[in-house]
Amino acid sequence: MTKGKSLLLGFVVGGVVSATATLLSTPASGKELRIRAKEQGVEWKHMLENLKRDGMRLKNQIAETSKEGAALIKDLTQEMKTSVQDWRNSVEPHQKNIEKYLEQIESSLKDLEEKVKKDSSI
């Protein structure tokens, strides 16, 4: 936030200095100079009001976006937890069957090895 204030202060100070230098270096009567200075002051006032309004809008949009993002992350996290739990529930019954099949395959491989050893020793 201090960077934004510093930037705004820099614009204001730079504008004042440049306007003052311009007004003092131009040949004009005192009345014309006062009129231009007043007009310039009004323009700067409007510009600062617009900057302030735009800054408030930006602040509100950022706050709203961060709230929406937090809600989306919360929803996504809940959906992921539900999906993982559903997957676990669907895999768990099959896990025992897979373990059985693996034991049967292992047993068959051992039998096959023994048979190959017997055949090769003959």
TrEMBL record:
Coiled coil: 95-122
Keywords: Coiled coil, Signal
Transmembrane segments: none
Provenance organism: Virgibacillus oceani
Annotated InterPro entries: Desiccation-related_membrane, YtxH
Signal peptide: 1-21
Organism superkingdom: Bacteria
Name under which the protein is recorded: General stress protein
